[in-house]
Amino acid sequence: MIARPVLIFALLASASAAVPAWAQDKQAKKDAPFTLQQALGDPDNLTISGSVRLRYEAVDNQFRPAADRSGDDFLIRTTLAVDYDAGPVRIGGELWDSRAYGLDPNSPIGASDVNAVELVQAYVGLSAGDALGAGSKTRVTGGRFLLDLGSRRFVGINNFGNTTNAFTGVRADFQAADKTSVTLFYTLPQVHLPSDAASVRRNRVEWDRESGDLRFWGGFVSKPDLASGLSAEVYVFGLDERDRPDLATTNRHLVTPGLRLYRDPEPGRWDYEVEGAYQIGRVRTSTAANAPEADVSAYFVHAELGRQFAGGWKPRVALEYDRASGDGSNPKTYHRFDSLFGPRRGDWGPSGLYGALGRSNISSPGIRLDVTPDKTWDAFVFYRALWLDSAVDSFASTGIKDASGQSGRFAGHQIEARVRRWIIPKLLRLDTGAAVLINGGFLQNAPNPAGRGDPVYGYLDLTATF
Q1: Three-class SS of residue 54?
Q2: Fewer CB atoms inside 10 Å of the end CB: C or N, the chain?
């Protein structure tokens, strides 16, 4: 049988290429497409925006043993954001409505994908202007808000996912005259509700909640253009967790310091990125209340070297390497890296029905090609080879494990591709992509794989922004 994801990808790529040129030319003659901002007369102090995204996704040879071999679904994400800037005081809010339809009986879609009618932002900000120095900017924000810091590998807005992580607390942002910026925050992450499968399938509305049982805090410093385009980021993130009456946890107490050095891509020159983080703390070895605690010692590293070439398509080729530690067999220490609240899409491929890879127990070199022929469309193809860092821990985000270590470390290969095209610039965009996980020795021989062949995934997005 021809895999549905491959068929979807081929059809959508053809459809996006066949969009009549007159529709794009007609729109190009306008200064801008219709927006809610325009409908309100474009007031100076009020900003309003929204979006609706429709997604169909499908997978064959699902790697999750408990899920059906093949599955598909239809996801809808609607957002509406409002921000009122009254001088030193700023008030804003944002609503996300994330729903799923047509779920298969054993679909892995859950609370991380469905969150109907949720107020992810409701904040008040106070600006102190240049009170801390000429040319500086200082703002303190309290309430519910989103966090998007640095490479977004540890905390960021989930652009691909159907839902996103949001936080309740306080943050302070400072920017000096030389663009050096500092962010400090102390928050209670919102827990997505409802969490039971029956309520998720019904798209039942239940407000997310936060409590002192889960706390996320940290500091982030960014220094742009140190020399020859080099920029640097230094950060530390903390996570403190304890059992709730309705949820047993592993009582994570993690501190994650890290450093990132990078040079942004530009035509005709080399660019690079190196990021590393180390994790320490304490964690219970299971969710059982009497489980022993272990000392945490885990790490993550990303290295990338790329070059963007001159020319109409602006091709960029990059060599990448990622490694995140996995746990060993010593019960007194814990080595599996925790990526906290970082989205996975940029490095590891689509989530949703797929989501096989992540920043835990993985060692992966890869090569990526990006092209941007013009302002209306872009594409990339990305190949990765996959190994386990620890042969006795579960591989990445698959949940597949061989505690004996006898299945080896080579997990296989992942090939991913995406094409995006603006049907109507700044208003309506098509996004289609596919990924295949070619099973290696570990995924073929481990005790608990699904044994269904190579997983193949595809999706189709249509997004209206207004």
Answers
A1: strand
A2: N
